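Box S1 | Example of a co-folding query
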Amino acid sequence: MTTVLKLGGSVVTEKDSPETVDEAALSRAAEAVADFDGDLILVHGGGSFGHHAAAERGVSTESGTRSAADARAIHDAMGRLNAAVLDALHEAGIEALPVRPLSLASRDADGDLSLPTGSAATMLAEGFVPVLHGDGVVQSGAGVTVTSGDDLVVALAESGALDVDRVGLCSTVPGVLDGDGDVIARIDRFADAADALGGSDATDVTGGMAAKVEKLLALGAPAHVFGPEGLEEFVAGGSPGTVVRGE
Ligand code: IP8
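Box S1 (continued) | Returned holo structure for Isopentenyl phosphate
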């Protein structure tokens, strides 16, 4: 059994300030993750690294680039963030290794993601923690488009080989919020939460909470959406924030 945990880009970076790591938040997250017992795959988002690099070049999940220089600029920005995340994880005693989607994944013309998971599975078997991240990924007929960390989470969770039974999405909000700002404890159907779900408030080329919930509802495993204050509880096996589970 494997747990997949995504650390949102807004948790580990200053999302409105280009290429700025939130060092304190990142090391707090790494220390919390260090207490996890079992097989763990981490994914992190783009925050002020990937989203700014992609937005500056007009690249998104929908709109690709055929400029290798632009694709590299996005990938390199994500590489700088990935290095900072790995440094913090190593500092916390976690044997983490990078798995970089540009070199591994592809999308078909409909946007369906293909993510080979052999390297992550072997890393787990050898006692490492694979760390993936949102990235530019080559797409049939579109050049390189942006693949969100959320899509990677879904692909990992759907890979039979990894046997994922639990998913966590740690973002800056304490869960999926209703119209009054209260955390919705459980979402089984998109209609339950549709009215309350809005867009993201900072530069985000891959969509806000609504897009996340829609993807999570399609998973076989329960997904927990929570804020940084819920991370310790999730790592300990608890259910902070909102549980999203499709019927
Ligand atoms: O923050 C986006 O990943 P996300 C990655 O998980 C890039 O949506 C390159 C913008």
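The chain has one domain: 2-182+194-239. The chain has a mean pLDDT of 93.
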